[in-house]
Design brief:
The chain is an alpha/beta fold. The protein has helices at 30-37, 40-43, 60-71, 83-91, 106-112, 136-143, 179-198, 217-222, 229-234, 245-257, 275-289, 318-324, 333-350, and strands at 52-56, 75-80, 95-98, 117-120, 150-156, 167-168, 201-207, 209-211, 242-244, 263-267, 314-315. Strands 3-2-1-4-5-7-10 form a 7-stranded parallel sheet, with helices on both faces. A two-stranded parallel sheet has the order 6-11. It has a two-stranded parallel ribbon with strand order 8-9. Helix 1 packs across helix 10 (245-257). It is globular and about 60 Å long.
Amino acid sequence: MSAPETFRYRLDPGPRNWPIGRPSRFRFCPAVSFDLRRFANRNNQGIEAQNRMFILGMGYVGKFVGQDLINQGWAVSGTCTSVDKKEKLKKLGFDVYLFDAYDPEPQVISILNQHTHLLVTVPPCKDIGDPMLQHSELLRKKLNNDCLQWLCYLSTTGVYGDYGGAWVDENCLPKPSSELAKLRLAAEEGWLSLGHEIGLAAHIFRLGGIYGPGRSAIDTILKPKPLSHAQKARSLKNFTSRVHVADICNALNECIRKPSSGKIYNIVDDDPAPRTEVFSFAHKLINEKWPSQNEKIAAGDSSTERGNLNGEKRVVNARMKKELGVRLIHPSYRSGLESICDHIHDSSSANSCDEYPCGYISS
């Protein structure tokens, strides 16, 4: 859409006394909350207390985003796929609805339409694509009013495909090779098209490898499990672009304040490092924090073998910084892992325990 005045995004999101959603001060992850509160004097400026976010798919990222917004005074609702997940999310202060993206209930879509902002985290599925976009006519009908103003779809840098280790930005032609990456690209186009048709400020975030509390090299080492096929493949890569979950929240906050419909942003840190380097640093941190466990922690994942550059790229985050004004909380995996390790260590100390699992709230 070329004319900004046609967007429905505005500073005052509308009615302030809606019957659903409830703010809460409960913080389910102190480590990320602390990281984000360091930026509170900047991040809270200009955000309306009565903004209302609906998150389609409250998984790992959705929970962190939702809690960050609740801590700022937002009302947050969302969806999940099981009763067990719903109960856990309700305890965190969210209004949660069981939702099957393959067969969406019109009632839930109607509730979604009582919100000012929509975040889509549901991934595409093999042979189907984006399950929500299979019902685009229903979405166009239900979402076409003056309430919902802003939309963001969380995608992946995997859509770029093979660049032989070269740097890529948002102007580079995506060359997805796998079926799922192709479906991701199609989903991007679908959500941008939907936003254009119904007048939303729609955005795409291409995320690097997501890590944070409960999902990091620190956690992998301290809670060892057999490596998956995908993890083994990543261990041979020369470059992996990453992003800490706190910086995903950080970037979303800025995008909400500075909507620019149709824009795509790479959300990654400054340091696309190989997995072996990351795990070597994680072992170093663990040995410093828990020297008594040196013999208990297997060296693991220490191979220095590298693969070739086929299928690789290094992802540029300049647009995110320039246009959204994002200042990364964790510009490198080093800062992110240090924060995670400090949180685990401090939690363990508070519980008078030398062992890692005690006092650590894993997501």
